[in-house]
């Protein structure tokens, strides 16, 4: 049975990686999907085509979540097309690895604009337009529980997302909107592998209790659960999907 039949979902950063897997999973469970992307139109349209093969509706909408005007347009176009919104997955994010002495003001502003500002103002739009009983699923990272050199700016953004999530769970509870955050561990994507040696990748994989990298489908499965009615009594929680890495 399609547990999300009749639902409408926005997934930010959905043209590849974890976002793509989430879009396909929610569509496979019956949801109509808005595939948000920042710049790669071709990849986004490929995801839309895959979703349409599943027999549900999908649309690709370009929007840079670091810009509030783009976020507003993303929600406006979603409502114009589908008339409502039930699920928001704030997956879009960026990362860099620098010791604190090398982080520039531009670096700092850029990562906070995408990871924190983008999530915050997308949640603001959802609070205004989401149907009662909706679901907001934000993305943090298991690195917030680790002390990894060169991650200070990144984990700063993700720690902020975790606290925003906790507050919004109480703020939106009166509308029965559940707000949770997922904190993946190392997940096997193109972005994760970029710039890393195989030796480093193998080392990171061994940090998990299962001795492997996570797979995008394993993250998407948890998102689908949190988006479903089965998770209706879960809100304000941070779920670490990391194979026991921490």
Main features:
246 residues; alpha/beta; Rossmann fold; 7 strands
What is the secondary structure topology, with strand pairs?
Blueprint: E1 8-11, H1 17-28, E2 32-37, H2 41-53, E3 58-62, H3 68-82, E4 87-90, H4 105-129, E5 135-139, H5 152-171, E6 178-184, H6 190-193, H7 198-205, H8 216-227, E7 238-241
Parallel strand pairs: 1-2, 1-4, 2-3, 4-5, 5-6, 6-7
Number of domains: 1
Unreliable segments of 5+ consecutive residues? none
CATH third-level topology: Rossmann fold
| Assembly category | single chain
Query: Which CATH architecture is right?
Result: 3-Layer(aba) Sandwich
Gross morphology: globular
Give an overview of the whole structure:
This protein is α/β, with parallel strands linked by helices and 246 residues long. The protein has a single domain, classed as 3-Layer(aba) Sandwich (Rossmann fold), CATH 3.40.50.720. It is 44% helix and 14% strand. The chain has helices at 17-28, 41-53, 68-82, 105-129, 152-171, 190-193, 198-205, 216-227; strands at residues 8-11, 32-37, 58-62, 87-90, 135-139, 178-184, 238-241. A 7-stranded parallel β-sheet has the order 3-2-1-4-5-6-7, sandwiched between helices. Helix 1 (17-28) crosses helix 8, helix 3 packs parallel to helix 4 and helix 4 (105-129) packs parallel to helix 5. The longest helix has 25 residues, at 105-129. It starts with 7 loop residues before the first strand and ends in a 5-residue tail after the last strand.
Provide a compact summary of the structure.
The protein has helices at 17-28, 41-53, 68-82, 105-129, 152-171, 190-193, 198-205, 216-227; strands at 8-11, 32-37, 58-62, 87-90, 135-139, 178-184, 238-241.
